[in-house]
Structure formats: structure tokens, C-alpha cells
Amino acid sequence: MKREAASTTERRPPARRAAVGVQALACSGDTLKRELQHAGPEAGALFIWFGVVVAVTVLFFFNPVEHGFFPACLFHKLTGWNCPGCGATRAAHELLHGNLAAAWRNNALLVCALPFCAWLAVRIFLRRRGGESRLPVFRPLALWISFAVVAGFAVLRNLPVGAWLAPV
């Protein structure tokens, strides 16, 4: 019986694979995993976009300052220090409402990193559209510089000299 079900999913035409993503929402556990394995990358992309749209919609309509269902920073709770991501949810909420100054006050690193992230997403999208499936490769120096910037931001925002970087 299981072999029969697997052979029918393998015979799905490529055009119907994206529709499997919608069907998989009603499945659970092993069935969902099996459906996604046979669905192809279109279903994975569909789930990612669906998740992004839901997250952005929730963040747009619910202010993290006023609603307590957003996750709190575990690092901040344990140490009392601000991690590089502290204030990012509030900053994203402010950006969605067009308030760049308030977003900057909550997390300057996020505001500075978003244009780079957008550029990277467009680059990956264009590569995939061109038929190239591998992700872009970054030189180790670029990764080390990124790590140093994030670590420096984390340290600076916890010092008295960088108090202006702490989230409000």
C-alpha cells in the first residue's frame, strides 16, 4: 500500500507539484514529509513565502511593544545585556510603518543590514531564474568582517559609550 502511494506521487507532472504544497497543509508528520520530498522546490518556496507573508502581516498589525505574544530575547533575560538582535522585532514593525528613525533607535544593525539582505535575495532569485541552483559563495574575509561587525555592534551597544545603540 505504501509503495503504491509513493509511485503515484512520483508520477505527478511538474505543473502539479506546486499544488501539492497546498495539499500538504492538511497533512501531518510523515505524510507531510513524504509529500514535500516529492513536491519539489516549488512547494518549499511556497511554504517559505507563505510564512513570510504571515509573519509580516502579524508584525504589521500587532505592535511588539503592546502585545506580549512576541518572543522575548533569552540572552537579554539571562544576562541583562543586549544581543545584536535585541530590538529587531520592534525595528521591523517600525520599518513596516515607514518610521525609519524609530527603527534605527531600536536596532541600527537591522536597518543597515536590510539593503544587503534584499540585494542577496534578488541575487539568489536571479540565479535560480537563470537555472543555477547553487547559492552564492562568499569569501572567508567577507564572512569574518560580517562576524566582526555583528560582534562589535553587540559589544558597543552594551557599553556606556554606545548607549545610543541600545534599543528603546
Describe this structure in words.
With 168 residues, the chain is mostly helical. It has nine helices and no strands. Helix 2 packs across helix 4 and helix 6 runs antiparallel to helix 7. The radius of gyration is 21 Å and the shape is globular. The N terminus is likely disordered.
Secondary structure blueprint with pairings:
Elements: H1 2-10, H2 14-24, H3 29-39, H4 41-61, H5 74-79, H6 88-96, H7 100-106, H8 108-129, H9 140-156
Subunit arrangement of the protein:
single chain
- Biggest sheet: strands, sense, closure? none
Low-confidence segments, given as residue ranges, are 1-10, 14-22
> What shape does the CA trace take?
globular
Give the total of beta strands: 0
Helix residue percentage: 55-70%
Summary, kept brief:
This protein is mostly helical and 168 residues long.
